[in-house]
Amino acid sequence: MNQVIVNLWLYIKQLTKKWIFLLVYYFSLIGIFYLVKLLKRELPSWMYWTFALVGLFWASYKTYKDKIPANSILEKKPNILIQLIEGNSYTYSLLEDEETKKEAVPDAFIVLHSRISNQEKLEIDILALDLRYDSTRSSLYFDEYYGAHLYDAVGQKINFPVHLNKQGIYLCDFKNRVSKSPSLNDAQFASRFVNINKEFPDIKVEIEAEVRDLKGSLHNFSFQGEISTRSLVELFINKWQKDGKMDLLNLAHIEKK
User: Fold this and answer.
1) What is the torsional sign of CA 34, 35, 41, 44?
2) How far is 241 from 252, CA to CA, in rounded Å?
3) Which residues neighbour 118 within 8 Å (Cβ) at sequence distance 6 or greater?
4) DSSP letter assigned to residue 257
5) d(Cα 213, Cα 77) in Å, to the nearest integer?
């Protein structure tokens, strides 16, 4: 029902604009004609009404014709923008519980920080968000996905489905578990640090969103970008220096502090 009211209001606005333009245009022509040719004689009132009605019907027809193209203002589609938060796109942390404290290469976590904003003056529902990493060329493995967590402007967590108002904004965190490649042991993993650009390249990331508009139609949006793994590598090096893992530091060509 809301969409019907919006469409009707937009139609009336377009109709009024065209009608006023036609009235001003034709009355100006007629006024100039009478001024020059008929010495300022006034037009009979029925003529004004006739031109007004003709202009109304013509404006109605033009407004109807103008709404036919798919990109018409009356047929706007939802549009959301997914972005990583500049300056705080992601954070890494090592898993250090009682079981993993003694491990030289424990698993880690990455939390990806993003912003989702509604770019149109159309209300929508966010049904789901998904995240994928492409780490096929890396010595790291992004495996277990803990899901997307949405927050409003005051930091309140929100569950799906999420209603996004016109030009509204939500923050979203994606959490994943990260481990060394299953094909590598600790020594092999540490030796990869020597050729860090090749073995730990930037990781491609893709975020997908499924939304529903007020008509019930479904739409998909995506974001593609890259993140660095350098800060995670530094966490491993700091842990080895702290734990005195000289064998791994030597393999990585890192001096103990």
Assistant:
1) positive
2) 12
3) 78, 79, 80, 124, 164, 165, 166, 167, 168, 169
4) -
5) 8
Distance CA 121, CA 126 (A): 15
pLDDT tens sequence across 241-250: 998 899 999 9
pTM recorded for the entire structure = 0.66
Residue 219: pLDDT over 90: yes
Contact by Cβ (8 Å): 187, 247: yes
Distance CA 110, CA 232 (A): 9
Tokens linked to 125: 């529902």
Please say if the pLDDT value at position 41 is more than 50: yes
List, in sequence order, every residue forming a beta bridge with 202; answer none if it has no partner: none
Task: Please tell me the distance from the alpha carbon of residue 251 to that of residue 105, in angstroms, as a whole number.
Answer: 14
Reported in sequence order, the residue ranges of the chain that DSSP labels E, i.e. its strands, are 80-84, 90-94, 108-118, 124-134, 140-151, 157-158, 162-164, 169-180, 203-213, 218-227
R_g (Cα) of the chain, nearest Å: 31
